Amino acid sequence: MAYAFQLYQLAGLVPYDLLMCYAFFTIASSWMWGRRREIPDGVLGGVGVIVPFVVWIFTQFDSWSGLIIAAAYGGLWRWASEHEAAAEDAMRREILAEGAAAAARRAQAPGDGVARFAFAQALEKQGHWAQALAEYEEAHRLSCEMFPESAISEVRERLAPAIADKRPPPFRPSARRINLRPHDKPVAVAAAALLLWNPPKALGLLAALAFARWLTSGDEAPTARASF
Hints:
By secondary structure, the chain is mostly helical. The chain is built from eight helices and no strands. Helices cover 72% and strands 0% of the residues.
């Protein structure tokens, strides 16, 4: 009976350690390469890498310490996502205000190439790719000196993929949302299955995997920003 229990523990320990290594590698890579979303470097390095890694070692002796990992990543995610959501909302309001001002200026002077150009930039920031390109084309027609053929060619090249792909606006739908890719789902299922093996350790593992995915998904918001 004791031998069977040891085999049971070993059968869960191997996938647990492998998946935890994967989560730590993803988070540490994001930290080293600057993909930190809105988290300060020291906070992510300390709370997101060093502390959970040390606690992970202790989980080999005390499985309940896995709850510390879950608490660390859950708290870090909540704190960072709230700050990011506030920053995103402020940026969104600023972009919409700029768009409203540019639209008013265009309405007052429809034949002004500068006004058309400013309105086109505002549309592009809001993700209205086709409308933005049309306004850029009109700005080029009205003011070739200010907006020459080389500039409009660059704009066409930049916006063409966004228009063809029907790319959504360059705003994150939610700062707290975790977007799972197809190959993330088997990993999540395997980690969730470990709840039957050791709930405290599995909760820490799920928190680490979820935080790793959330951290890397911050770079996946599609954009086609102006380069002027």
